[in-house]
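Tokens in:
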């Protein structure tokens, strides 16, 4: 059944209404399955939120890794694309309402471990991409550069006025860091 349920729809609903105010009826309507089917599969709203958050993390990481693996793109485009897939694509949901940040912080009891594990995989993949295709000076600093770029992307999610600005600034920063 989880292959029919959209984690994006669930998280968008949580972003609009907040976790506490989202009813199982609304969640069922957002997923296109019955309330009882959700309870049977997940047992609770919190377990459903955990699943949705884990699905989002896994999908974001997979999309980021696909960007890094694109041999036709430049290193700057691959790194910026990966960071956009990991963080930038979620700007609209985070800003959808005052509850958007709640999705990232409170929807699941502790999404932190899952996010940290996925981010470590992303940083490792980015560092490998820098080592394989970066300028000579970047190779020795690939790990720290990849981590700094992840932190930068997370900061830009909150600082950039819109997604286009996020992407433009991220490409500028990635390019400048690799050029050093």
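Residues out:
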């Amino acid at each position: 059944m989880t292959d029919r349920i959209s984690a994006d729809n669930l998280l968008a609903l949580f972003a609009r209404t907040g976790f506490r105010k989202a009813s199982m009826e609304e969640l069922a309507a957002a997923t296109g399955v019955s309330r009882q089917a959700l309870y049977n599969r997940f047992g609770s709203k919190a377990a459903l939120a955990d699943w949705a958050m884990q699905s989002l993390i896994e999908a974001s990481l997979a999309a980021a890794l696909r960007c890094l693996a694109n041999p036709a793109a430049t290193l700057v485009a691959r790194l910026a694309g990966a960071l956009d897939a990991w963080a930038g694509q979620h700007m609209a949901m985070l800003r959808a309402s005052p509850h958007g940040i709640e999705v990232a912080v409170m929807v699941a009891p502790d999404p932190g471990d899952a996010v940290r594990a996925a981010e470590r995989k992303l940083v490792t993949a980015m560092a490998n991409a820098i080592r394989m295709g970066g300028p000579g000076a970047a190779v020795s600093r690939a790990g720290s550069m990849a981590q700094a770029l992840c932190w930068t992307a997370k900061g830009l999610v909150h600082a950039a006025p819109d997604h286009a600005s996020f992407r433009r600034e991220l490409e500028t920063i990635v390019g400048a860091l690799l050029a050093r």
